[in-house]
What we know:
By secondary structure, the chain is mainly α. 75% of the residues lie in helices and 0% in strands. It is rod-shaped.
Amino acid sequence: MPRTVNAVTAKKRKKKVLKAVKGQFGRRKNVWSVAKNAYEKGLQYAYRDRKTKKRNFRSLWIQRINAAARTHGMTYSQFMGRLKEKDIQINRKALADMAMNDPEAFKAIAEKAK
C-alpha cells in the first residue's frame, strides 16, 4: 500500500493563513509558526470585538439621544422614562437617527413625552 501524505491539504491551509496575515509587520507575515499565532489571535480579537461593537454603538446612541433630549429640557433618563410611561415604543437606534437627521420628528416625540 502506498504511503499517503497530507501535503495538498497542508499547503492549502498554510496558503490560507499566510494570505490572511499578508499585511502584517515583520515575521508575522511570512514565518509559518508566527503567522499561525497572529492569525489565531486575530480571530480571537474579531470574535471579542463583534460583541464590543454592539456595546459601543448602544453607548453612541445613548449619547446622541441625551444631547437631543437636553435641547428639549430633559435628561436621557427622564426622556426614556417618560417614553415608557406614555407607552411610546421606539428603539434607541431609531431615536438616535432621528436626533441626528430629523430633529423635527425628534421634537415631536419629545413633546409627546413631556
